[in-house]
Specification:
The complex is a heterodimer of chains A (about 110) and B (about 120). In chain A, about 0% of the residues lie in helices and about 55% in strands. Chain A is mainly β and about 110 residues long. The chains are: A mainly beta (about 110), B mainly beta (about 120). The interface of A and B includes residues 33, 44, 51 and 101 of A.
């Protein structure tokens, strides 16, 4: 079973700064099946990135994803106040697996 | 506009069966392009996939829950359902239904989610 490990657990930044989140898989996986979600308190997760680097419909271009093999990166180029949330990566081999999440908080 | 809405009891007694329904609007549930799934989130914790079902009835469950979980369709009502038997306090969570894209490349991601339903297991 693939295990996804996200780092850091918590990231403290200020609006306007660049955020870089990591998702590491326990074995090499296909980037075609790697997605990123944003979850705000009391809300359902929202799809941001699929296929490691494709933005979902309506997602601003300050959000981007990259990576391959075991290492994937999610970047927010310039943080807006509404971007502070928890971010999850997800992969699918025979079934979906989620990372444990990275909390992006205001510094 | 695709919408998913979970419904069901918010309180279930230990050892009983948790039952939730997801009503889909804005699209028909009968498509080979999508699977339909349940994901849960215990209070203050991360996301845990429970299982998925295809229109043809193929089901896939998390191995640790397989003996207690059933997902089924009611296509006449554009709904799918979740049942978890023999619940304990560890099953207390917000339960989300979601649509899983399974065709094309890239694929295998959840593109639409319901708002979530909190289910508490307590006597």
């Amino acid at each position: 079973e693939i295990v996804l490990t996200q780092s850091p657990g918590t990231l403290s930044l200020s609006p306007g700064e660049r955020a870089t989140l990591s998702c590491r898989a326990s074995q090499s996986v296909s980037s075609s099946y790697l997605a990123w979600y944003q979850q705000k308190p009391g809300q359902a997760p929202r799809l941001l990135i699929y296929g490691a680097s494709y933005r979902a419909t309506g997602i601003p271009d300050r959000f981007s994803g990259s990576g391959s093999g075991t290492d994937f990166t999610f970047t927010i180029s310039r943080l807006e106040p509404e971007d502070f949330a928890v971010y999850y990566c997800q992969h699918f081999v025979t079934s979906p697996t989620f990372g444990q999440g990275t909390k992006l908080e205001i510094k | 506009q695709m919408r998913l809405l979970e419904s069901g009891p918010g309180l279930v007694k230990p050892s009983e069966t948790l039952s939730l329904t997801c009503t889909v609007s804005g699209d028909f549930i009968s498509s080979d392009s999508y699977y339909w799934g349940w994901i849960r989130q215990p209070p203050g914790k991360g996301l845990e996939w429970i299982g998925t079902i295809s229109y043809s009835g193929y089901t896939n469950y998390k191995s640790s829950l397989k003996s207690r979980v059933t997902i089924s369709f009611d296509t006449s009502k554009n709904q799918f359902s979740l049942k978890v038997s023999s619940v304990t306090a560890a099953d207390t969570a917000v339960y989300y239904c979601a649509r899983l894209v399974v065709t094309g490349l890239p694929t295998n991601y959840f593109d639409f989610w319901g708002q979530g339903a909190l289910v508490t297991v307590s006597s």
